[in-house]
Amino acid sequence: MTKSILLVGVGGQGTILASKILTTGLMEAGYDVKMSEIHGMSQRGGSVSSQVRYGDKVYSPVIEKGSADIIVSFEKMEALRNLDYLKKGGKLVINDEQIDSMSVITGKEEYPDDVLEEIEKHAQATVLNATAMAEELGNVKAANIILLGTIIKSMGLEDIDWDSILKDNIKPQFLELNLKAIKVGMDAV
């Protein structure tokens, strides 16, 4: 049975790195894995999404609307924007962070105050502030690995050796921080 994971966020949040580490772990665990990523002006704070599908045999990296087993949103508006990809009964994890898009910064649009309330009307979500949690660990940039930890726990992937995968994919000076971050994420859901 193929499982579908959608990671969404804003450029610079580490969405792609988290999905690459996830993909590496799944491949090392023996799954057939397909991944695709979309960078929408990601260097300028645009939307970024990464689709990861895994199972015995996966034919396409594309997640159809209404078929994601889990959506992990690194920014709350991106959760609302991608909600139609979540399957009925799927899991939704949201980092309670607001990052204004270029249209909000320039005054063309307003960031809605009720994003989380709007999401709750359509899906049950686990909301956490991964950014603040990462700050407590000593580096705000570890939020992506905290969110990766939520995926690992939510999808029952704890038996994969994530410590060694992090060791192979993270710069040595940030390894200790990220080993803590992944555990914080697993404990948060």
CATH class wording: Alpha Beta
The unreliable regions are none
Helix fraction?
25-40%
Number of helices: 8
Largest sheet: 6 strands, mixed
How would you write the strand order of the largest sheet?
2-3-1-4-5-6
Domain Pyruvate/ketoisovalerate oxidoreductase catalytic: 11-187
Pfam family, one: POR
InterPro entries: IorB_Oxidoreductase (IPR052198), Pyrv/ketoisovalerate_OxRed_cat (IPR019752)
Protein name: Indolepyruvate oxidoreductase subunit beta
List the defining traits of the structure above.
189 residues; alpha/beta; Pyruvate-ferredoxin Oxidoreductase, domain 3; six-stranded mixed sheet; 40% helix; globular; Pyrv/ketoisovalerate_OxRed_cat; Indolepyruvate oxidoreductase subunit beta; IorB_Oxidoreductase
Summarize the model shown:
40% of the residues lie in helices and 23% in strands.
What does this molecule look like?
This protein has a single domain, classed as Pyruvate-ferredoxin Oxidoreductase, domain 3 (3-Layer(aba) Sandwich), CATH 3.40.920. With 189 residues, it is an alpha/beta fold. The mean pLDDT is 95. It is 40% helix and 23% strand.
Write the layout of secondary structure elements.
Elements: E1 3-10, H1 15-28, E2 32-39, E3 47-55, E4 68-73, H2 76-81, E5 86-95, H3 102-105, H4 115-120, E6 126-128, H5 130-137, H6 143-154, H7 162-169, H8 172-188
Parallel strand pairs: 1-4, 4-5, 5-6
Antiparallel strand pairs: 1-3, 2-3
Helix pairs in contact: 1-6, 5-6, 5-8, 6-8, 7-8
